[in-house]
Each structure stands twice: as C-alpha cells, then as structure tokens.
Design a protein that fits this description.
The model has no long low-confidence stretch (mean pLDDT 97). The relative contact order is 0.32. Strand 7 and strand 8 form a beta hairpin. It contains no helices and eleven strands. The chain is an all-beta fold.
Amino acid sequence: QAHLVESGGGLVQAGDSLKLSCVASGLTFARFSMGWFRQAPGKEREFVAGVTQTGTITKYAESVKGRFSISRDDAKNTVYLQMSSLRAEDTAVYSCAAAGLLGITPDFFDYWGQGTKVTVST
C-alpha cells in the first residue's frame, strides 16, 4: 500500500525559507508524477507545484512562481518543496500526492500524504 509522509513544516517569519520533504513507500516512485497541494483554514485545497516522472517538467501555481521550487530524488523516493520569501498567505497544511499523469487538480492524484503544517507569521 502506498504511503506518503511529509516533513519539514513549522513556524517561520515572513521572508524566511523552508524546505518540505515527502518520502514515498509502497509504490514505484519513479513511475509517478508528484505534486504539492495546500489547504488553508476555511479554504479549498489548491495546487502548489508538480513535477513529472522524469523531473523534466514542473508546474507551479501563479502565487508561488519564482518563490517555490519542486524537485525529486528518485534514489530516495523523495520529493521536495523549497519555499522562499514566505508570506502570511502561504500559511496552510501542505500535502504531497502521487499521480500517474501530472495535473493541477486533486482528481489527477491517486495517493496522498497526511500533510505538514506551515505557519508564516508577520
């Protein structure tokens, strides 16, 4: 059974950087596109970033372009989300997900982690 576990969340100041990790098990990691989503209190889950199986194509939400970077290490079954210039509006629970095809909506993704909380204070 596929299992995704996120880590790296925490409380940071606006303008700081943070790197999230997501370790996958129970699936052939290299066969999956990976994505990061976030959900703030009272809001819908939204796409943040995604990367294809080969790592050659990445997608980002407009709100994080130029500030966030997604990468993957297939040898470690891990996908990362490097976040910089964090803003209060980035506060959310961040979840990673695995998909056969990379999309920007949750229905593309088959497996989900539980999430890690990121709080950005001003």
